[in-house]
Amino acid sequence: MLEMSGIRKAFGPVKVLHGVDLEVRAGEVHALLGENGAGKSTMMKILCGILQADEGTIRIDGTERHFAHYDEAIAAGIGIVFQEFSLIPYLTAVENIFLARELRTRFGLLDRKAMRVRAKEVLDKLGVAVPLDVPVADLSVAEQQFVEIAKALSLEARVLVLDEPTATLTPSEVEYLFRVMRDLRSQGVAIVFISHHLEEIFEICDRITVLRDGEYIGTRAVAEIDTDGLVEMMVGRRIESNFPPKPDSHPHARVVVDAEEIQLRKNGPVSSFQLRQGEVLGFAGLVGSGRTETALSIMGAYPAFRVKVEINGDPVPPKNPSEALARGIGLLPESRKEQGLITSFPIMHNISVNNYGKYRRMRVFLDLAAERHHTEIAMRDVRVKAPGPDVPCDTLSGGNQQKVVIARWLNHHTPILIFDEPTRGIDVGAKAEIYQLMRKLTEDGYSIIMISSELPEVTGLADRVCVFRSGAIVATLEGDAITSEEIMKHATTGKLRYVA
C-alpha cells in the first residue's frame, strides 16, 4: 500500500534523514520506532506533504506520488494524528473534526446537524464520550487526543499514521483505540503506528521498522524480536534497567509539604498527603481522577474549594504560581511545549526566564556573562544534549526539552518539584536518563511529586504512591504494596472521604 524509498532530508547543514526506506502493507499495523530525533515525525510529515523530501520517492498502491501540500495527501487517502495537537482551541470538537471539509446543505449552508451526527458516530466507535459543543480548549488533554483521532478516522483513509496517539490515554482508553485499529486492519487499511510504549508495539503491531539518527536500521516481524533486541536496535546499546534502585525508606525524613485537607470542589471528597524530603511521591489514578488538580492546588495554580496545606512548616499556602516559585516550588507541566517552554527562544533564555532578577546590574542591565555561565552549569548538570545554550528549544528532542525545564528549576533552586507526566512522548533511552536524573535529585535533597499515567513508571520509581479516584486520594501505598494491581484496585473501587 505504501512504499517510501531513499528519503533524504536536511535542514540547512543538518542532515535529518539519510536515504530512509519504509514499506507498509495493506491490512497491517506497522510500527515506526526510534529515539527522539531519529527522524520518525519528519518522515511522516514528508509523506503527508507538510515537508518536501530532498531526495526519494513515495508510492501509494504502486503509483509514484508527490504531495505539494497536506490537502493533496488527504485527497490521496492519507490521514495522520500528529504528536503535537493540530486543533483550533476555540472551535468545538465537531468544528475541528470537519475543519476545511465541512458538510453543507444543498443551499450551500453549513449542515451542522449532519456534522454533529457524523462526529458522534466516530467518537462512539472509539468508545468515548467527548463534549461536542464546547471549545476544545476546555477539554482535557485525553479528550483532545480523541478529537485528533476522530478527525483522522473521519477521513476514511487508506493509509493512517498515528504518531504517539496513546501518550495521554488510560489503559482502558488505549484498548478502545486498539479495537478500532484492529477493525481498520481487517478492512485493509495500512496503519503506521509510532509509540514509545514498547508493550503496545508487541500487542498491536505486525512488523516494526527502526530508525536511528536518521538512518534506516532494519525491519522485523514482531514475532521475531523481543524487547531487549528492539531497544538495542533503537539506541545502539543494551539498557539493563530503566529504573534506578530505590533507596531505603526514610519515614522520619522532614515533611516539606503537609496537605491536611484538599477539596477540589464544594461538597466533594477530601484528600490529605505528605511529601517528605528526598522522596519521589507518585500520584496515580485514571485520567480525570484529580491528580494534576490536587498538585496544582498546593501552588495556587488551581482554584480548589479548600486548601489547608503547610509548605516547609508555613501554614499559609501560596496564592498563585509566582508566590509558589518564591516558596521553592517548581512545575514541569504535562504539556511542555504549551506550558513549560517558550520553544522559539534559545535554551539560555528558557533556563533563566525565572531568574533574571539575579542577573541584574545596577537594576537596569543584564549580566549576560553570568546568565550564560549559570545556563551552562545547569545544562551540564542535567546533561542537555545540544551544541550550546543559544540553540532554540524547538530544535531539541522531547527528552532534551524536558531536561531544559528541569534545568530551569535547578537554576532557580526550587527544592520541591512537581513533575506532571515527565516522560510523555519520550523514547526509552531518554526515559532512563530522566529517571536517573530524578533519583539523583532526591539524593541531593530535592522532593518530587510525580504524576504519571504509566503504571510501570509509578511502580518502578515512586517511593510511595497516592492513588486517586473521583477527585481525591483514596489510598497511600508504600513498599511491597506498590503494584499495578493494587493501584488499579484502589483507583476503581477506593473509598472516598468527606468532611462536614
From TrEMBL:
Topology within the bilayer: Peripheral membrane protein
Any Pfam family matching the protein: ABC_tran
Residues annotated as domain ABC transporter: 2-238, 251-495
InterPro entries reported in the protein's UniProt record: AAA+_ATPase, ABC_carbohydrate_import_ATPase, ABC_transporter-like_ATP-bd, ABC_transporter-like_CS, P-loop_NTPase
GO cellular component, one term: plasma membrane
Gene Ontology MF term list: ATP binding; ATP hydrolysis activity
Major subcellular site: membrane
Keywords, comma-separated and alphabetical: ATP-binding, Cell membrane, Membrane, Nucleotide-binding, Repeat, Sugar transport, Translocase, Transport
Subcellular location: Cell membrane
Gene3D superfamilies in the record: P-loop containing nucleotide triphosphate hydrolases (3.40.50.300)
Annotated protein name in UniProt: Ribose transport system ATP-binding protein
